[in-house]
Amino acid sequence: MCWAGKVALAIVLLLGSLAIAGALYQQIETWRDARRSPEPGRLVNAGGLRLQINCTGTSSPTVVLDSGLGDLLPEWEGVQTGVAHFVRVCSYDRAGYGDSDAGPMPRTSAQIATELHTALQGSGEQSPYILVGHSFGGYNVRVFAGKYPSEVAGIVFVDSPQEDQYKMLPAAWQKFSAALLQRYRKQADTAPFFIGLGIARLMLQSQGGVGRYDYLILQSKYLKARASELENIQSSAEEARSAGGMADKPLIVLTSGKTLGATFISGLNEQGTAQFQRTWVQDLQPRLVRLSTRGKQIVLPDANHNIPAERPEAIIAAVREICAAVPAH
Fold first, then answer.
1. Is the pLDDT of residue 15 over 70?
2. Is the pLDDT of residue 329 over 70?
3. Does the predicted TM-score (pTM) go above 0.85?
4. Partner of 223 for a Cys bridge, out of 188, 195, 259, 286, CB 3.0 to 4.6 A?
């Protein structure tokens, strides 16, 4: 073998060794993280797949928490702890998220609502349910309520989207959404390489360390599910529209009072920011209120979009108010 061939072989062997070492590093560290910080709850059958569900507290009705895009069930910890003091409450991971199994594609609200309903039945949780949907989770709980109306007693929307927003919000928001989808798709496509070989974990370590539950997002199934949810979000919006209203069931809409555009979206000038805030707070969110004759909007002036983390007590209070309005079972 000539010297060039020997060099090429050495490089191939070196790269192969690094790949094996990286894969072992990823597997071992993920196992260690899961041992140190196991995700709360248990896996239950959801019809061909298993979902992680965490239920605490007692008494009826049962509150069901559905997360925003990319959020895991531990992010409801503050809300769930407070609600469990007076009623039964369940958080869960959608298919592909956390410890839940990967689910069928595409990931739309109709598919998600069906899986959640099956999981609740499989876990033995009893209706009626009070549904709490944060952000994208708002579409999911609307579809759930439309599919299983006799099992839903009330809803709390937490800065949730409304299906007309795609034509009403500023152009900068549209560009932001398109760029975010492109990033999510790229991360999902490269996940087997960057995550499977431990590269993403090493990058997190170099930026300050791997957080308590970061190992749950360092998974290909998570990145693929998240990308599919965003890619099909307008389909989910139309599914939510088709679900219809809630008649006279109690409904509370919690709205971020701080400008979502200023928090998340670059490219909005002062006029665009004001337009975004006005449209979101004064038009889109009230449209959600009108889904029920007993709808009510509460604007939280000191909260950004991430209300579950910033103002858990506001969600707890809203759930308590809905519980008080639901007939005893």
1. no
2. no
3. yes
4. 188
Residues belonging to the chain = 329
Q: In this predicted model, what pLDDT tens digit does every residue of 195-253 receive, in sequence order?
A: 876 666 767 676 766 667 888 888 999 999 999 999 999 999 999 999 999 999 999 99
The domain spanning residue 288 has which CATH number? 3.40.50.1820
Task: Give the number of other Cβ atoms within 10 Å of residue 284's Cβ.
Answer: 20
On whether residue 272 sits in a domain, the answer given is: yes
First to last CA, the chain: 82
- Eight-state DSSP code of residue 268: -
Distance CA(130)–CA(282), nearest Å, equals 25
Count of domains forming the chain: 1
Half-sphere exposure of 282 (CA within 13 A, CB side): 6
Q: How far apart are CA 258 and CA 260, in angstroms?
A: 6
Alpha helical stretches, state H, 154-267: 165-168, 171-194, 199-206, 220-231, 233-242, 260-264
String of DSSP letters for 239-251:
HHHHT---TT--E
The model's pLDDT over 294-313, given as tens digits with 9 standing for 90+, comes to 999 999 998 999 999 999 99
> Which residues span the domain enclosing 105?
42-178+220-325
Does a structural domain hold residue 199? Answer: no
Q: Which amino acid is at 12?
A: V
The H or E element spanning position 92 is strand 88-92
In a domain, 11, yes or no: no
Burial (CB count within 10 angstroms: exposed 0-12, middle 13-18, buried 19+), residue 276: buried
Instruction: Please count the other Cβ atoms lying within 10 Å of the Cβ belonging to residue 150.
Output: 7
Q: Which helix (H) or strand (E) holds 130?
A: strand 129-134
Give dist(CA 145, CA 165) in Å, integer: 21
Instruction: Judge whether 54 lies within some domain.
Output: yes
Burial 294-320 (b: 16+ CB within 10 A, else e): bbebbebeebbbbbbbbbbebbbbbbb
